[in-house]
Design brief:
By secondary structure, this protein is an alpha/beta fold. It has 8 helices and 12 strands. Bound molecules: zinc ion.
Length: 242
Amino acid sequence: MRYGIFSDVHSNLEALDAVVEAYKKERVDKYLCVGDIVGYAANPAECIKKIEMLAKVSVAGNHDWASVNLFSPDYFNPLAKKAISWTKDNLDAKGIRFLETLPLVYKNEDLTMVHGTLEEPGDFNYMTDSYIAFGTFELLETAICFVGHTHVPEVFIKSGDGAISRGRESHISIKRGDKYIINVGSVGQPRDGNPKAAYCIYDTEDKSVQIKRIEYDAQSTRNKIIDSGLPASLGERLLEGR
Ligand code: ZN
């Protein structure tokens, strides 16, 4: 099985289209979305429609749930708050229904998927250090947990002896007995200094996970953000990947 796993599209249709196009060369069997389909950019309804058709399962991100009043906007910074209120005004009824029904956690025989962490997934905490990773590893019942939320691709590995290491490698070989938390990065708003959209492929036969990057027309996304009345800085940051 080859999974195409992606996260944090954030209403960026140009980045989503580029990633979908890139995935066509990857013989993907099943697509999974790790949340935050909406928020920040100007095409929430279009991105929901595409992902609803493409992905077998999507889990909820904090922006998804905040946009349909299932998570408090109090937890967001002023720019994100503005984007959420703009998104609320620009969703259609079908999109609202889709976001409302997103689960917090998904698990199958190959993997687990959660936007933030497995401990209190509805709090949307960030996977930022080994201590937080430890909490998720304790609850993890599969070999790999895919996460998003920080918009920075990286991997936490818990080896058989319990030691947790952390890395930024983009090609990960899955070893029997080890457990993995893999942050797939962000399609629509990368924050690791690389403005290219991030997407992940997990091959269960090959026992490998790859995180790839693809260039997209970020200038168009930026222009749409500004033209639609969203904060201009949400457009500018895309050009720098921060
Ligand atoms: Zn996000």
